[in-house]
Design goal:
A hairpin with a 6-residue loop joins strand 1 and strand 2. The protein is 41% helix and 5% strand. The protein is mainly alpha-helical. The protein has one domain.
Amino acid sequence: MNNLLKLSIDWRPRRLPELVERLYSVVQMQMKDLRHVLYSHGNYTLAPDFEPFTVPHTVWQSRTEGEKDRAFSDSEFLAYTAKTKRKTTVTSTNGVFTVPARPNIAAKPRQRKQACAERAR
């Protein structure tokens, strides 16, 4: 994401209003990509938990613009992540490998966060 933002501003410092406009355009592009996922178009696919929100492409084309907006924003599609429970395991895409899902899964062994008041040795 950082590289995408730097490419959009041509790797140069910008004034705050222009930076905000660029950020807004990047977010709008991501929302369009997310909307394309609903009817199985674009570079992404829905996770298995979100498959009930999938709409066939022919049905999507027959809807009006207002119906499409409601299907994307008002149908709890965007708020669904808050309702799902966190899974205890993560499975590979081919279904062969399963590991426990922990918040610190990428942390090195025997590492801990240093307290702010603790002096370095």
